[in-house]
Amino acid sequence: MTTTLPDDSELSDAFSAGGERVLRLVYDRWSSLVYSLALRALSDPAAAEDVTQQVFVKAWQRSASYDPARAPLGAWLVGITRNCIADALADRRRHASAADPDVVEETTPAPEPSFDLAERALVAGELDRLEEVPRRVMRLAFYDDLSHREIAERLDLPLGTVKSHIHRSLARLRTRLEVIE
Amino acid sequence: MKHVDDETLAMLAVSDEVAEDDVAEHLASCAACRAEVAAIQRVAAVTRSSSGVELTSPPERVWDRIAATIAATPDPVVAPSAVDHSAAVVEPAAVDEPAAVHDSPAAVDPAAGRAHVVPRRRPRRRRVVAIVLSGVGVLAVLLGIGVVSGVVPGLPSGGSETVLASTALDALPAWKGSSGTAELERDRDGRLTLVVDLRSGDDQPGAGGLREVWMMRSDLKGLVSVGFLDGDRGRFTVPSGMDTARFPVVDVSAEADDGNPEHSGDSIVRGRLSPS
Question: Is A115 at the interface with chain B, CB within 8 A?
């Protein structure tokens, strides 16, 4: 299943070279993350749709300046999403204060929870894209909370292989998260 | 003192394994290794909490609006040549394009609207040119070093460079038997060069693959690629704007020839520069 998904780094390289077909692939890969973050922060489907649209239009306009060596594409898109959400919130605050100054306090939500979701969603997406064996190892270790020895028995792998999959996969996840922090 | 290898740190971070005495002793005195454990624990915590994250897909109309906005964006490469050919043909298009943009006002925020005017092909070309030019620059520097260090007789070959810092490079467990050295040199013009020597282990006869040299932060959380090793010895010009004090760790990794610019996570040797 995962073999049919374009590899993220291939997608990053293709994206930096531009092109609308690539934008569609990028949209397929990350639009649900972008939309979910916006929906969580704004609690308004129409506003979340607007933000999603802005994010991908901006991403397309800035594709020439995107450098795959400096940031993973997912993290880069999350960065643009944060800016668009902040703009949408600021807009909303301006309108709210014009209509009724008392509402301002209440309509200033803290955006933090959505950023936490961004990390979790990026990690979940990365896990889905691991090779089959490391993916199963990681899920058993972190979702099912099995010990390394239990995983080795369950998957009939040497203990050292289990450890090495966990070590490598965590290192990989870390590179995907680095820019988010 | 020698740092604890990555895999051991990862296992200490995510399992209930107890550190061996020497590892525990090192951790007690080494903030960098402790920070590494903490960073891995954080990634592990995010991973645990990523179970059951449900994402909602946007309705398909969002893509339709994106596609429409993009189609309405004037293409600076096509537009001028169209003007040259025939005013009669161009006129409707010229009227159409701005109209299409205004048709979907929700689509375009003020910042994006401004960006529409910016030609989007040109910068890409400039970037390619810049890369080519910088490549030429690096080549010139390398040739220059070659000239200074050997080809021209009569020039001092050893005296022109000062070794600022050096380290032994120790093998990571998967690459037992490998070793090496790294030296950071400054030449008379103030240019910094990282010189890396790698000795492969007996069981690792330089098999295929590429070997990339990196400079990393002490906590290994930031890194800069300085180049690929060709053979067992390489000289790498350190970018002049780079603060080498912030990237004291020299790392050589095994890389697949797959175009992925990131560190593979498979380090062969590593060491931390210290002033010499």
Answer: no
